[in-house]
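quick one, 697 residues, struct below
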Amino acid sequence: MDGFLPMPKAFRRLLLAAALAAPAAAGDLEFPIGASWQPGPGAPGARPAARGAEAGTVFSAPFGRRAEDRFYWDLAAPLDLDPYRVLELDLTVERPEAMRALTVYLESGSGWYAWSRTPARAGRQRLRLARADFTTEGAPGAWDAVTRVRLSLWRGAAADATVTVHGLRARTTPVIVLRGTRSLPDAAERRAAEGAVRRVTAALDGAGVLHAVLAEEDLAGGIPAGARTLVLPYNPRLPDEAWSRVRAFHRGGGRLVVFYSADARLAGALGLRLGDYTRAEAAGRWSAFRFVDPDGWQVPARVLQESGNIRPAWPEAPGTEVLAWWEDASGRRAEEPAWTAGHRGVWMSHVLLGGDGEGKAWMLAGLLTRLDPALWPDVAAAALDRSRRLAGFEDAGAATAAMRSAARGHPEGRRVRALLDAAAALEADLEARRARGATASFLTDAARVRAMRTEAHARVQRPRAPEFRGVWDHGGAGWFPGDWDRSARWLAGHGMTAILPNLLWAGRAHYPSEVLPGTETLRRHGDQAAQVMAAARAHGLEAHFWVVCWNLGNAPPAFVAARRAEGRLQRDADGRELPWLCPAHPANVAELAAALREAARRYRPDGVHLDYIRFPSRSACTCPSCRAAFERRRRGAVADWPAPVREGGALRAQFEAWRAEVITGVVRRLRGELRAIDPSIQLSAAVFGEIDDARRG
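---
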């Protein structure tokens, strides 16, 4: 992140000759992707792509014609990546279903740094490879001594896969997200901080904002050169050394985005006055934030978030102002500010919670580009990309063609065509505005394009009779927390037939349970299962209880500790503990079955919807319970466990088949438990879309 370091002239010339689709920012380091790639055994040779905007290097993996599990290509490239924390891969993917993963390896010393991702969609896209997300193989050396780049494509469906790499660069990071560590008193608070970091970085990813994550202790080495904005997702009171670094950064022109801090020094630096901690004693007191000037800041007018406690910062010095006020569940403005603008920074009175992901990505895009206009090119590109994406379609062109075809003879055909025409015209205008650097109303208009295409897609549908139209509610408390009747009435009025509220996790329940601990939602809003059932019956909706299996991400620490002591948690192929209950452990299956029996008998839902009814990854699980069960299944001991069941191991195929049997057995048992209580209770599951991937995953 300190920019270019001295390197041989010949290598600099090679970098300058690399053909890339987009210009690099000052200080970015280009990989010589146009140079000669050496194919691995059996891999077809890489070839140059077309000139112009689609220039790059093409890699083809003939999975549809060959039996190999992967193909790879190597590029000898001496690189100093030590100053950089993020790589950016610009590529076009064809037939993403043909790949279960794409891996970028960087060789250094006697090992490799490795980063993998399963391509989510076809078409042109940019992937951000955070250095913190790389794993290691062997004993890699330092990041300043990378000698080789390897691109690997791994077999998915039986079809040929093609990837065109348009560019690969190491990028300076203008935004640093500061993970709370030393400012937090215990492990539970640090886990809360980790959650806050995940939600903020997910929103930044959606906004197209390049960023890296540092821990508070990392500031001892200074804030990395090139950083212009520091984001504090949850750092209640900075240690003195970290505070000195942050203060110097801000005084030197840096920007700050602060969430839910108790540090009056931070508030004072921004010209704000820190208010008191306040807890909501009634449900729905703070349910959304309404921006005062959404057009000026290019943010949504309203963003949803249900918060139970806040610590606001109030404008004090000249030039500071309230950006957004809290609203309650009925839409009335609360007395407390949700967002406040200070001197080169903004302050939110709570942490960023889940829900309204698109709104929060748009919100952070607007706030950050207002603080730092240099972020604009990346943010504008991401906004246009979001406007063109519609679920189920490769790109906007395919979506538009399908909708125009479906609109022929449709009662809503004229309205659908008008929406598509307006979206196309506004998109063309946005492209022209982006080319000339016109930023006014850009994010707002990009959101309008997406909204028009989404509306057209909804209007062109031809409903079936009868038709199941269900809506997931991840929070489990409805759209108006504390008022399920209002949520159900609103859904029924908009044509929905079912609601799937997330009421049960592996380690918690939103209703009084004798099997699992209760939640804060239960404490504040009461028995959500009873309220859902009453509201659904009153408004003619089906109610299917959404159940998250095995995943302990939201479980109380004491609950996790007790199951750890009993040996009930999963382990990956390297023996590392995972925050998941093992589905091969009889006590875990019995506990899940008991929780479902309790819910089914007490509330009689129309259905139960299983989520995470799988292992968390291909490397899990190798715990003692899995080893014992697998050895019983194959009627023989497995020496050198877990090597034979790892990827490429002699027993890998048997292990994958056994894992599928484990999950099938759990589902079969749960189906039987529900039928014994009420045969009319439906059982459904959230599953991967590609059957082979689901079976192996």
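The first strand starts at residue 29 and ends at 30.
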